[in-house]
Amino acid sequence: MRNLFSEPSGTRFFFKAFLPILATTLLVAALTALLLYWIARSADEVAIDRQHRLVEMVLSRLQTRIAHDQESVTVWDDAVQSVRSPGNGEWIDSNLGSWMASYFGHDGAYVLDVQNTPIYAFSDGETLPVSAFEVLASEALPLVNRLRERLRSGDTEGINDRILSLGVSGLTKVAGHPAVVSAKPIISDTGDIEQKPGEEYVHVAVRYLDGNFVEELQQDYLVSELRFSWREDTTNGEVAIPVPSGTGFFIWQPYRPGATVLAQSAPVLLACLAGAVIVLALFVRALRTRSIRLKLSEEALIHLAHHDLLTGLPNRRQVEIELDRSLKGLGDDEQFAVLYLDLDRFKEVNDTLGHPSGDELLREFADRLRRHTSESDMVARLGGDEFLILLRNPMSDEDVSELCRQLVETARRPFLISGARVFLGVSVGVAMAPRDSLSRVELTRRADVALYHAKRSGRSAFAFFDFKMDTDQALRRELERDLRTALERGNQMKVHYQPIFSAQHSKLVGAEALVRWSHPEKGMLRPDAFIPLAEENGMIEQLGEWVLKEACQTAVAWPLETLAVNVSALQLQNPGFATRVASILLETGMHPDRLELEVTESTLSDRRQECENNLITLRAMGIKIALDDFGTGFSSLGRLQEMVVDKIKIDRSFVNGFGTENGDEAIVQAIVDLARTSGLKTTAEGVETQFQRDYLNSIGCDELQGYLLAAPLAPDEFQLLWQTETRKHA
Ligand code: C2E
Ligand code: CA
Ligand code: CA
To answer: Is the distance from the beta carbon of residue 525 to the nearest atom of ligand 1 less than 6 Å?
Structure first.
């Protein structure tokens, strides 16, 4: 398990979430503890107060109680008689002395006669000589005298059903003990024995406060650790209560119910607190795990939104963000390059090998791009087979060119895809910031424009943006619009016909249909100015079909062996092309034997099934196929035999090269020889001089075409020429 607070975000989490929750919990716990403590203390205070009052009450009642004890023997006829009659010592002892000690716990008992002379003394569990009274005489006699006075004065205050006789008592010190001394007259209970008030015998009882009284108090009232002390020397939470009239203190350890409950419940409370903290920690951990997971999925989402799934490269959105950032942070003498890349022939690979192979190829290409760039650069996939590289801080244009060369080179190396070696290429367009633009949109657009030019200049190339390109593109867009209108209206397009002659007899044998565009503003436009455009935007099929139909319609009546019509490679890729040609022938009445379709080498090397099928069908119909511009493409002379054509048109660049050091005569001779052995006819294009004509004738070239013989002509011009020619040969 990951440590919760290990990484920086963990620390942040600790301070932002965990600490406040923990602090709150501890605060609540502290407040609760304080409250409990306060409750316990209040409870203790109440309890202690009650104990105080209890001890006070017991003390205050003690005197009454002792007096009451005494009454059980002093209000009694037998007692009056016994004390007055000498020789009754034993009776006195057992009833007024030891009995009082054993039954009531009195510590001392004395009997005084009328003159206050002691006749009996008992103390600390034994009968003593009467002189023992001396010890308390000074304390007891004033009480006795007061009693006699009250008796004499007939004072009856306090006498009722429960208190049968007068009494005087006091708290004092006897033989070093704090003690209650109580004096009671010995009187008749029946009233039968008359005594003169004040002349009664008096019973003096002594009860020590520090003796068994303390034990009694402890047992009866549950006052623990009670002791008597002359000084208020409390320790350890003890409490003290003064004995009235300054005779020392009772000290005890008070019962504290609050503290007891608190002490008993403290472990439980602590356990609860610990539990709460644990639960809290678990909760916080769950929260944290959740927040980590949330953050991770959030990051994953953000990554997804900014990256291409297939290659893992940043996507268009990320490119926009990065470009904006780079443009914003561009320093005074800094620059960066935007490279727009597009794979050549990728669509073919995708179509022939299938999409999984296409995906594999894109991944491999992405890897190659990454290997050629550094960490600080950004390689992104914009979609399809389009990539973009943001090259940060290139030193010069030459650096960028060098990288472009490497990229083009790396793309030319074969890709090993599902066991097959696939050859591709890449075209690169470059725009530099700030030189080309400081706006993201404009910068990428210019890189795209440069890419377009790189592609047009032949594939596997790169180009830097140039302002001229922009004008070119604007013009092209305009032209594209015009072309569309022209094709819709159908009246701006014309077909011219260039005569083709037999080399041997200079006889007009055929014509090549060449399209012209009579542009309302730009005048007559040659096909090179608009055919590539039509091929790029898919208008070529419509245009090609129109030319074919127009040419057939026009030339059907002309006494020509062949009518040659140019066909674009794209037209042949359409599976329905052969059928369209057949229906045009039917419509116009042109015989298939008289039609010749001129195709280029790239058309023939196209391995696509549709293309091959079209060519086979067309030839089966009797239509001838001529290989146009022979020698400019890639195919070698050696492949000539494999090609399914009837005629070869030798490109005019060779004818042009006659008489130069290139040795083009030899090449043309070889082509003608090879064609003848393969049973193919040859036509030489671009014949402009008599020398060229003679040479071509001498090596056995079958047909000639060129300005020397005739330029491409409008239909009426062509008809004139044809009439003169017929007359010439007639
Ligand atoms: P191409 O098939 O090689 O056509 C012959 C081109 O050579 C024509 O140019 C013609 O005017 C030119 N030419 C003829 N004799 C001479 C000569 O003695 N010297 C020189 N220097 N040039 C000569 P054009 O009409 O501009 O056509 C250019 C290309 O446009 C054609 O080249 C052909 O590939 C294409 N094209 C023309 N019409 C069509 C069409 O209807 N469909 C398609 N797909 N392509 C067409
Ligand atoms: Ca041609
Ligand atoms: Ca040609």
So the answer is: no
User: Is residue 442 pLDDT above 70, yes or no?
Assistant: yes
Locate CATH 3.30.450 in the chain.
Answer: 75-208
- Picking from 240, 252, 258, the residue whose alpha carbon sits closest to that of residue 42 is 258
Bridge partners (DSSP) of residue 121 are 110, 128
DSSP strand pairing (227-229 vs 177-185): unpaired
DSSP codes, 350-390: HHHH-HHHHHHHHHHHHHHHHHHS-TTSEEEEEETTEEEEE
Which is the closest atom of ligand 1 to the Cα of 514?
38
The per-residue pLDDT of the chain, averaged, comes to 89
CA of 625 from ligand 3 middle (Å) equals 13
pLDDT confidence bin for 1, thresholds 50/70/90: very low
**What pTM did the predictor assign?**
0.52
- What's the CATH number for 307-466? 3.30.70.270
Per-residue pLDDT of 560-570, as tens digits, reads 999 999 999 99
- Residue 78 makes CB contacts below 8 A (sequence gap 6+) with 91, 95
Atom of ligand 1 nearest to the CA of 598: 2
DSSP assignment letter at 75: B
Give the atom of ligand 1 at the shortest distance from the alpha carbon of 527: 30
Residues 289 and 9: their CA atoms lie apart, in Å, by 12
Eight-class DSSP state of 528: G
The pLDDT-based confidence of 637 (bands split at 50, 70, 90) is low
Which of 597, 685, 693 to mutate to test ligand 1, by most ligand atoms within 8 A of the CB atom? 685
Q: Which fold has domain 477-728?
A: TIM Barrel (3.20.20)
27-30: list long-range contacts, CB under 8 Å, 24+ apart. 29/273, 29/276
CATH (one of 3.30.450, 3.30.420, 3.30.160, 1.10.10) for 75-208: 3.30.450
